[in-house]
Amino acid sequence: MNRRMQPVLRSVVPTLIALVGAAVISAQVAERPAAHRQPERGAYTPTRDHWETRTPADVGMDAALLNQAIEYAKTRDTNWGKADYMADQVRTFGRPLGRVPPSHGPTNGVILRHGYIIAEFGDTSVVEPTYSVAKSYLSTVLGLTIDRGMIRSIKDPVGEYIKDGGYDSPHNAKITWEDHARQASEWEGTMFGKPSTFIGAEEFGNGEMKPRGIRDPGTYYEYNDVRVNRMSLSLLKLWKRPLPDVLKTEIMDPIGASDTWRWLGYDNADVDVDGKTMRSVPGGTRWGAGLWMNSRDHARFGLLMSRMGNWGGRQLVSASWIKQATTQGGPANSNDYGYLWWLNTKGGNKGVPTSSYQAQGNGSNTIFIDPEHDLVIVWRWHSGGDFFARVVASIKS
Q1: pTM of the entire predicted model
Q2: What is the distance between the alpha carbons of residues 353 and 222, in angstroms, rounded to a whole number?
Q3: Which of 3, 22, 227, 358 has its CA 20 to 30 A from that of 243?
Q4: What is the pLDDT of residues 203-215, one digit of tens each?
Q5: Do residues 362 and 135 make contact, with C-beta atoms less than 8 angstroms apart?
Q6: What is the 3-state secondary structure (H, E, C) of 237-300?
C-alpha cells in the first residue's frame, strides 16, 4: 500500500486494514509502478563473518503471517530428483556432459529484509546445483564486462570482439551481445556436442524441440542453453581468465560469500585461450556441472542486486547495468524477460510488485528480489506456489 495514503485511510476509514487484511496489501503491491531504488544511506550490509538477524516485528512484518508463509513453503517440497536424481536429469534434459549430484536435500530458504536475516528454514548451508539461476550470474558478468569497457556497447556485434569462428557466418555475424542476453540470438552451431537446434531426445530429453526455420538475430526469443553457453564462451575469450575466477574476485569475495560455491564446466569444455587451456562454464545445470551454491550465498547475491550493485558503499556493478538488465524488452514473442532475469513487469506473479524480479532454475530454485520492500528471498527445491506473495503480505510497514 502506498505509504502516502496511510494517514488518509486512518482518518477516513480507520477499520479498513483490519477488515480487508493481507489480501488487500497483496493485491495493491502488484499495482505499484516499477521502481529501481538506491539503498538508503547507512543501510545494513552483512560482513563475511557475521550476518545479523532481526525479528519480523523489528522490520515491520507480521510474525504470524510470516510464519504461516514459511509453513506453507515447507509443504511445497519438489518431487523432482527425489526418487532417482539421475533418471530425472536424463529424462528432463538428455545426455549429461558434466557432474550430476546423486541426490538433493529438502526444500530450504532464507528471507532477508533491510539486509537482515528475518527467517530461515531447512539447511541453507548445503551446496547444490541451482540450474538456470546461473544465467543471472552470467548476466552480471556481462555487466561487469561492459562496466570495465571491454565491450563498448551491448548492441555491438559479438563478432567484432570474438574471432574464434563462432560468428563468422553471415547469419551469426549479425548477433549482438544484447541478442545473447535476451535469448534472441538465433546463434547457429554446436557447443560441446550439443547442437543449437535442440533436436533429438537422446541429447535433450523432454526439452527437445521440433525443427523450425531460423530467424534473424534479435527477432525471435527462444530459451536455449546452447546459445547461452556460446555467450559464456565469448565472455571467457574476452576476459582471458575463467569466469568462476571473475565472479569470485569481482562479486562473491567482496560480498562476503563463503568459499564453498563452485561454477563447474562440462567434462569436455576445455578450450584454448591465447595458448592456455581454460574450462568454459555453462549458464545452468541442464547437462550437469553449472553453478553449485548454498542458499546464504545466493541471498548475498540477491541483496547486492536489490541494492543496485552497491555493497557497503562500494559499487561492484553499476546501477545502470542492473536497471538495464531488469528492464523488459526483446522480440514480440519474448516472455517477461530482461537480460537473463525473469521479470514481473506484466504482473504475471500476483501479489508481488511489478518491479520484483527473479533468478529461476530447475528444481525449482529461485532468488526473488523485491527492491520496493527491500526484500530478498531464496527458495530452493520447491514445486511453486504463492510463497513470495504470502511473505509480501506479511509486510506492514
Answers
A1: 0.91
A2: 26
A3: 358
A4: 999 999 999 999 9
A5: no
A6: HHHCCCHHHHHHHHHHCCCCCCCCCEEECCCCCEEEECCEEEECCCCCCECECEEEECHHHHHH
